[in-house]
Write a structure and sequence with these properties.
Blueprint: E1 3-4, E2 10-11, E3 13-17, H1 43-55, E4 60-64, H2 74-82, E5 88-93, H3 98-108, E6 112-116, H4 122-129, H5 134-147, E7 152-158, H6 167-176, E8 179-185, H7 195-201, H8 206-215, E9 218-222, E10 228-233, E11 236-241, H9 247-252, E12 255-258, E13 263-265, E14 275-276, H10 278-282, H11 287-299
Parallel strand pairs: 3-4, 3-12, 4-5, 5-6, 6-7, 7-8, 8-11
Antiparallel strand pairs: 1-2, 9-10, 10-11, 12-13, 13-14
Helix pairs in contact: 1-2, 1-11, 2-3, 3-5
InterPro entries: Aldolase_TIM (IPR013785), Elp3/MiaA/NifB-like_rSAM (IPR006638), MoaA-like (IPR040064), MoaA_arc (IPR013485), MoaA_twitch (IPR010505), MoCo_biosynth_MoaA/MoaC (IPR050105), rSAM (IPR007197), rSAM_sf (IPR058240)
Keywords: 4Fe-4S, GTP-binding, Iron, Iron-sulfur, Lyase, Metal-binding, Molybdenum cofactor biosynthesis, Nucleotide-binding, S-adenosyl-L-methionine
Family: Belongs to the radical SAM superfamily. MoaA family.
């Protein structure tokens, strides 16, 4: 049975950030490459959180970071979570280590993957990430599809005058390699709070959406994904991910997040209502106590936009 908050929004999925460390330095991210490993949750603690989530009705788990594949125990983490028989277990990654892990992760129970890749141009990749891992990321996407992950989605943050002219090249790359292209609209977030940066590089998606509507053989609206539209074009797929900071997102939000240091984040857009779950686990609280902590966090969850 699904757990609902007081606004009758079902809680379907849980995103667990298993590390704040990363091996790239994306210019729109506030993390500066490798981050301290202090206080990271163990594989067993992550499993425990997933177990509680399953027991209160959550159906999907997504592992993220930082860069989750930087953890040497990533296969063990996926394997443990997969024993809980969620409807879906997935990962968000930058793809640079995916070639090494793709088959092992599939064997461990991973179902699908989102790979963040903003460009196919080596110089642009170097500019965005301060690294030269483009070939590794491209091989990672191919390896993910070949290993049977389905779908493989490529997340492209679209930035004016940096990579916006590459959208259709990226679409062809994704179509050729069995991936779905997700175009992410740049917006002000916790990880990209720089208003000057946003103003300079924000790319308006409306014209592109009109073009996609005219070119698409079919358009599908995904109700449980904030009414996100999926465009089917020339035997390929494109989705546009609009900013979260709107009432439509709030009204349809079905997600919780766990921060890298083990806090429940009931609202993706707030940091003033975090709930400590890892402290309760480390102090030996019972499963019933842990479930109550989760449910209390959900019941006290409010839309960021009060008019939702």
């Amino acid at each position: 049975m699904l757990t609902h908050d007081s606004f009758q929004r079902p809680i379907i999925s849980l995103r667990i950030s298993i590390t704040s460390r990363c091996n790239v330095k994306c210019l729109y991210c506030h993390h500066d490459g490798i981050m301290p490993q202090d206080n990271e949750m163990t594989a067993h603690e992550i499993f425990k959180i997933a177990q509680v989530a399953r027991d209160i009705g959550i159906k999907k788990i997504r592992l993220s970071g930082g860069e989750p594949l930087i953890r040497k125990d990533i296969v063990e983490i996926v394997e443990k979570i997969s024993t809980l028989e969620f409807k879906d277990v997935s990962i968000t990654t930058n793809g640079t280590l995916m070639e090494r892990y793709a088959q092992k992760l599939v064997d461990a129970g991973l179902k699908r993957v989102n790979v963040s890749l903003d460009t196919l141009n080596p110089d642009t990749y170097q500019f965005i990430t301060s690294r030269n891992y483009l070939d590794s990321a491209k091989r990672g996407i191919k390896a993910a599809a070949q290993a049977g992950l389905d779908p493989v989605k490529v997340n492209m943050v679209v930035m004016k005058d940096i990579n916006h002219q590459e959208i259709w090249d990226m679409f062809q790359f994704c179509k050729k390699n069995g991936a779905v292209l997700q175009l992410i609209e740049l917006l002000k977030t916790e990880s990209c709070p720089d208003t000057e940066f946003i103003d300079k590089y924000h790319f308006e998606m409306n014209q592109l959406e009109n073009e996609l509507t005219n070119r698409a053989d079919k358009v599908k609206t995904r109700a449980f994904m904030q009414d996100r539209k999926k465009y089917f074009v020339d035997d390929g797929e494109i989705e546009i991910v609009k900013p979260m900071d709107n009432t439509e997102f709030c009204k349809n939000c079905t997600r919780l997040r766990i921060t890298p240091d083990g806090k429940i984040k009931p609202c993706l857009l707030r940091n003033d209502n975090l709930v400590d779950i890892i402290g309760a686990i480390r102090s030996g609280k019972s499963m019933e106590d842990l479930k109550k902590i989760f449910i209390d966090a959900i019941e006290n969850r409010e839309p960021f936009y009060g008019g939702c």
